[in-house]
Structures are given as structure tokens and as C-alpha cells.
């Protein structure tokens, strides 16, 4: 990677966003759907950032998926017109959604349902007009969703019959597919998508029109894009990671041709031994859910071993005599970008390989409580 000028005036650890790379990733996102923004509904859980949403809107991408109500709130503030909260809502979250709908009348909000209990929570919610709801169809991930069954058909019929809810379509997420091999990934996609296809046929045979199908994540994005472009019925793809990308996806899915646009600035703060270097990049600065060898990549360092990581520090082993000096600036690429971005209140902006006088906030890393 090319060097970044101006790092000396940025504290560490810090999150950096390369705007030029973000723009290239957005262009590639559109290229995969033949430059038709109506086929895209990117997930904003990766960046949680208003400026990136504004760049999407400027390209005609007016639909998004959200993981949290705070993300939905941010999207509405920015002016996104079609906002899907892509998890079933229960408890006080239903009233919070109703408040968002009242606060942002220009935005269309929707959510998911996958159970009779979830349906009841929404059906008795304090909505002033019919809430758009998608059936969340489980096609193999087994996290949320309901399998293609008579119970799923019953839920669709309940949505259609409800005076307070509106059947908006089908949502199907194949997040369980993450094999690197392209042919095997395609095979697993085919096994998953047939469940969706068969359920859509069932609905058609029952005389039920599906207004929109929303499908897929990032590893299978190109496959879903083919479906969206060739479908006679409305269809959208919902990848999230491509906007910023990360080291993990970069190593596993080079066929998608996105590039890293989010970086972490760290500095060497100590040399515990002649082979060890300690960086100020602990658990609180980069996502730590993976084993220590898969938390961050340092393209400019030859690391023999990731020795240990604590809340504020990361110790690495290098060959004797090859340690970066104390005070050295080190650029890392997060292995999993989404939870890494969520650790920061803001990102410093890179333009033309130079730290710019801009700071982009990450406001949707918070939670809405009312």
C-alpha cells in the first residue's frame, strides 16, 4: 500500500477512512449490478456514517438495510427514503420504531417478522399507518428467519390480512456462506437460493404477489446480483462490507475486486525485548472476536508472531533487528471491519494519500433507548 502523508498530526490509535477508495468501492458496487442503483440496498452496519450515506445517495442508492434503530435514525436524518431494520423487533423497540416513523415522515421504514410472537408485537404496535413488514425467510443461516413451511405461509397470510401491517415482500440472508473457493461458494449459494425460489413459487401458486425480494450478503453478492438483474419481479441485493472492505474479505474473496478503505493508525510504544514490539492497538481499538492472528494485518511489517493483546496494547514478534522503532507509525487493516469501526467515535479522512482536514463522525455506533 502507498504511504499516507500527514500521519504525524493524528493521535493513535485512530480510525482512517480513504475517501478515494470508498468512491471506487461504490463504483464497483454499482458495476456489479450493471449500474442500476435500484437493485441495491447496502447494509450500513459496516460504516454507520452520514458522509458515506450521502455519497450513496448522490449515486442514486436510496435504499438501505440497518442492524440497529440508531442506524435507521441516522439514515433518516441524512435523507435516505427507504430504510429496512433487518431484524425482528420486540419489546420497547417497537415503540422506538413508531417514534422514528413519526419523526421522519419522508422516510419509509420497514422491518422483519419470523414468528407469530413477533407478528403480535408489531400488529399491536402504536403505528399511525400500516407498517411495511418483510417475512424473514431462513435459507440456511439459522440465526433469524423462518424456514419455508406452512407456518411461513401462514405468517404471510397474517401480514396480508392485518389492518396495521403491510406485506412488503421476502427477506433472505445467506450469511452462513463464507467459503473462499469460488466454485464451492457458488454451489452453497445454489443450495440456499433454491429454498427461496421454491417458497416464491409456493406464494405464486397461492395467488400471493411478492412486492420485493431482498437477498444476500457480501460473499455471494455477485450471485444475487445476477438474480436481481435477470428477475422479472422486483429484487434487491444487500451487501454491506464492500463499501469499506477488510483484510478478511480481501483474502477470501478477491473475485469481488473491492479494496480496503478503512485503516487503523497505531504506534510502537515499547520494545520489551530485542524481538518484541508493543503497539497501542488493543482490544478496544480493533475487533477481537477472532483469534489473535486474525484481528489486524500490517502490510508493511514482517511479523513472525502475534504474541499477546490486552485492552490497549498489542505485542508482536519480529526478526531480531527488524523491529520498527519506538514512535513509528504503523498502518493496519482490520480483519473484520464492521465491529472495528463501531469502536470509534470518528474517522480521520484520507484524500489522495494525504490526511485531510476532515473528520467523519460514526454516530450510529450508539444505541437508541427511546
Please give a structural write-up:
With 370 residues, the chain is an alpha/beta fold. The protein has two domains: 7-13 and 257-363, D-serine dehydratase-like domain (Lyase, Ornithine Decarboxylase, Chain A, domain 1), CATH 2.40.37; 81-238, Alanine racemase (TIM Barrel, Alpha-Beta Barrel). Helices cover 29% and strands 25% of the residues. It has helices at 19-32, 50-58, 69-78, 93-103, 116-123, 150-161, 182-205, 221-230, 247-252, 337-341, and strands spanning 14-18, 63-66, 82-88, 108-113, 131-138, 165-173, 213-215, 235-237, 262-270, 276-279, 296-297, 303-309, 314-318, 329-334, 346-351, 354-361. A hairpin with a 2-residue loop joins strand 15 (346-351) and strand 16 (354-361). Helix 3 (69-78) runs parallel beside helix 4. The protein starts with 13 loop residues before the first strand and ends in a 9-residue tail after the last strand.
Mean of all residue-level pLDDT scores: 97
CATH class of the largest domain: Alpha Beta
Main β-sheet: number of strands, strand sense, barrel status?
9 strands, mixed
What is the global morphology? elongated
Approximately how much beta-strand content do the residues carry? 15-25%
What is the fold-level CATH name, i.e. the topology of the largest domain?
TIM Barrel
What's the order of the H and E elements? EHHEHEHEHEHEHEHEHEEEEEEHEE
Briefly note the structural class of the backbone.
alpha/beta
Helix content: 25-40%
Can you count the beta strands? 16
Provide the CATH superfamily of the largest domain: Alanine racemase
List low-pLDDT spans: none
How many separate helices? 10
Amino acid at each position: 500500500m502507498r504511504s499516507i502523508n500527514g500521519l504525524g498530526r493524528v493521535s493513535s490509535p485512530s480510525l482512517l477512512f480513504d475517501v478515494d477508495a470508498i468512491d471506487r468501492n461504490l463504483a464497483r458496487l454499482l458495476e456489479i449490478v450493471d449500474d442500476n442503483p435500484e437493485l441495491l440496498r447496502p447494509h450500513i452496519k459496516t460504516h454507520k456514517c452520514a458522509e458515506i450515506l450521502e455519497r450513496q445517495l448522490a449515486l442514486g442508492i436510496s435504499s438501505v438495510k440497518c442492524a440497529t434503530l440508531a442506524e435507521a435514525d441516522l439514515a433518516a436524518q441524512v435523507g435516505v427514503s427507504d430504510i429496512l431494520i433487518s431484524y425482528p423487533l420486540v419489546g420497547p423497540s417497537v415503540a422506538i420504531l413508531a417514534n422514528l416513523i413519526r419523526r421522519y415522515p419522508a422516510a419509509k421504514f420497514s422491518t422483519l417478522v419470523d414468528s407469530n410472537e413477533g407478528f403480535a408485537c408489531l400488529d399491536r404496535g402504536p403505528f399511525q399507518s400500516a407498517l411495511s413488514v418483510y417475512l424473514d425467510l431462513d435459507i440456511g443461516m439459522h440465526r433469524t428467519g423462518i424456514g419455508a413451511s406452512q407456518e411461513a405461509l401462514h405468517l404471510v397470510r397474517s401480514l396480508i390480512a392485518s389492518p396495521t401491517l403491510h406485506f412488503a415482500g421476502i427477506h433472505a440472508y445467506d450469511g452462513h456462506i463464507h467459503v473462499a473457493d469460488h466454485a464451492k461458494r457458488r454451489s452453497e449459494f445454489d443450495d440456499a437460493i433454491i429454498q427461496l425460489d421454491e417458497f416464491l413459487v409456493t406464494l405464486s401458486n397461492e395467488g400471493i404477489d411478492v412486492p420485493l425480494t431482498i437477498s444476500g450478503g457480501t460473499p455471494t453478492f455477485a450471485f444475487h446480483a445476477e438474480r436481481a438483474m435477470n428477475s422479472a419481479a422486483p429484487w434487491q441485493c444487500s451487501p454491506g462490507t464492500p463499501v469499506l472492505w477488510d483484510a478478511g474479505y480481501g483474502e477470501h474473496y478477491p473475485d469481488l475486486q473491492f479494496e480496503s478503505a478503512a485503516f487503523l493508525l497505531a504506534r510502537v510504544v515499547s520494545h520489551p525485548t530485542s524481538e518484541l514490539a508493543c503497539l497501542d492497538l488493543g482490544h478496544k481499538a480493533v475487533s477481537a472476536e477472532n483469534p489473535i492472528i486474525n484481528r489486524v494485518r500490517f502490510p508493511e511489517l514482517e511479523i513472525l508472531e502475534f504474541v499477546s493483546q490486552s485492552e490497549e496494547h498489542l505485542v508482536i514478534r519480529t526478526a531480531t533487528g527488524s523491529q520498527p522503532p519506538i514512535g513509528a507509525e504503523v498502518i493496519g487493516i482490520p480483519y473484520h471491519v464492521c465491529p472495528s469501526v463501531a469502536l470509534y467515535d470518528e474517522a480521520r479522512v484520507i484524500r489522495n494519500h494525504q490526511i485531510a482536514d476532515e473528520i467523519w463522525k460514526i454516530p450510529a455506533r450508539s444505541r437508541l433507548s427511546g
